[in-house]
């Protein structure tokens, strides 16, 4: 990401102009990407980090950007997604029968476009406000929720004749929250930059994150959100970035110490709905076990038609994880065989596999009910 500093301001402005123009073409002229005319939910609102950011960081001063090739090479153009193509929530929108959800900060997020949902996710963002600050600007989860509040007050209210109709619309909409990874890889696991690992043990830190997230979910509830999808963090000890920094891996090809930390967070996140259901009447939650699914993809890639489970398709150094994907770098040709696109993020094919198992009717990695069942309620 630091390589972006090599670009002149003129080139960066040109890139941004191209991205905005293509977004206007994609979203602004009624490009119908929905599966049908009877979606399972009226709207899809997305909160999170670079795993689901659809381009918000294009519009803020940050090193955490992906608005250049080869990012987006299989999407058709670079959109700001940290992937060669679509993200997991892009497929989630398709399963709902909705079009791709535009980024909140994009010029296309105006007028009737907002009625089918917005994406507030921001690369480098975390549950904690300080997470990822070494990248520069990013919209933290608290900031994303404030943006959602402004969306309701300034953009959505004019479309509804009375408050009851707006409340019903929000209650039927799906709220996806995919965040927490940066609170580890861009906070707790960076002791030279952040003090969190010196203050908290693994269990205490996971408890802090869940306590903070619980308050943030309560904010969303108070704004009208009722159907919420909580995505667990993936096995960060398996990503190329972490593999590039250690000498040894376990038998599964991952760093056990890091995965154990993530498991502490995920176990608490899975239990969180049991607590919130008692304090937030009428709320509905599902937990998506991304960890178990993604770990299985790394350990048993052939089961999913994959071949390369530990190297980045676009990157540099050991496992392609020491240096993330550079502007105009030549990525691997057989991207459909790779689990990882760059040092941190899955390929489009990996996202498609994850979505098929978590944003569908399947309950294998969704608790206590499927995504489909949640949408139908």
TrEMBL record:
<keyword id="KW-0378">Hydrolase</keyword>
<keyword id="KW-0442">Lipid degradation</keyword>
<dbReference type="InterPro" id="IPR051238">
    <property type="entry name" value="GDSL_esterase/lipase"/>
</dbReference>
<dbReference type="InterPro" id="IPR001087">
    <property type="entry name" value="GDSL"/>
</dbReference>
<keyword id="KW-0964">Secreted</keyword>
<keyword id="KW-0443">Lipid metabolism</keyword>
<dbReference type="Pfam" id="PF00657">
    <property type="entry name" value="Lipase_GDSL"/>
</dbReference>
<comment type="similarity">
    <text>Belongs to the 'GDSL' lipolytic enzyme family.</text>
</comment>
<dbReference type="InterPro" id="IPR036514">
    <property type="entry name" value="SGNH_hydro_sf"/>
</dbReference>
<dbReference type="InterPro" id="IPR035669">
    <property type="entry name" value="SGNH_plant_lipase-like"/>
</dbReference>
<keyword id="KW-0732">Signal</keyword>
<dbReference type="GO" id="GO:0016042">
    <property type="term" value="P:lipid catabolic process"/>
</dbReference>
<protein>
    <recommendedName>
        <fullName>GDSL esterase/lipase 7</fullName>
    </recommendedName>
</protein>
<dbReference type="GO" id="GO:0005576">
    <property type="term" value="C:extracellular region"/>
</dbReference>
<dbReference type="GO" id="GO:0016788">
    <property type="term" value="F:hydrolase activity, acting on ester bonds"/>
</dbReference>
């Amino acid at each position: 990401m630091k390589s972006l500093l090599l670009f002149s301001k003129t080139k960066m402005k040109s890139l941004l102009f191209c991205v905005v123009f293509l977004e206007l073409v994609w979203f602004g002229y009624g490009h119908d990407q929905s599966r049908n005319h009877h979606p399972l939910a009226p709207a899809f609102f997305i909160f999170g980090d670079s795993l689901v950011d659809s381009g918000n960081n294009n519009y803020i001063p940050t090193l955490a950007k992906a608005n250049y090739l080869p990012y987006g090479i299989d999407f058709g153009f670079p959109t700001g997604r940290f992937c060669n193509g679509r993200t997991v929530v892009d497929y989630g929108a398709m399963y709902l029968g909705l079009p791709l959800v535009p980024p909140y900060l994009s010029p296309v997020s105006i007028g009737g476009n907002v009625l089918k949902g917005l994406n507030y996710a921001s690369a480098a963002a975390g549950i904690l406000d300080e997470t990822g600050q070494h990248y520069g600007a990013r919209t933290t989860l608290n900031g994303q929720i404030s943006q959602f509040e402004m969306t309701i007050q300034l953009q959505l209210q004019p479309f509804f004749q009375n408050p009851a109709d707006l409340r019903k619309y929000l209650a039927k909409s799906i709220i996806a929250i995919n965040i927490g990874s940066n609170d580890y890889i861009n906070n707790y696991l960076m002791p030279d930059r952040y003090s969190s690992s010196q203050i908290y043990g693994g269990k205490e830190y996971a408890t802090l994150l869940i306590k903070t997230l619980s308050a943030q979910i309560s904010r969303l509830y108070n704004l009208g959100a009722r159907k919420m999808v909580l995505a667990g963090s993936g096995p960060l000890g398996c990503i190329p970035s972490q593999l590039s920094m250690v000498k040894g891996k376990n038998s599964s090809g991952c760093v056990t110490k890091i995965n154990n930390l993530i498991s502490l967070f995920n176990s608490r996140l899975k239990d969180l709905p049991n607590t919130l259901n008692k304090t937030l009447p009428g709320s509905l939650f599902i937990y998506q076990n991304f960890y178990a699914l993604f770990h299985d993809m790394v350990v048993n890639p052939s089961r999913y038609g994959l071949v390369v489970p530990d190297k980045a398709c676009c990157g540099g150094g050991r496992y392609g994880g020491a240096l993330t994907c550079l502007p105009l770098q030549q990525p691997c040709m057989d991207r459909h065989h790779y689990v990882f696109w760059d040092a941190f993020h899955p390929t489009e094919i990996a996202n498609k596999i994850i979505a098929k198992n978590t944003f569908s009717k399947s309950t294998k990695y969704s608790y206590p009910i499927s995504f489909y069942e949640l949408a139908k309620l």
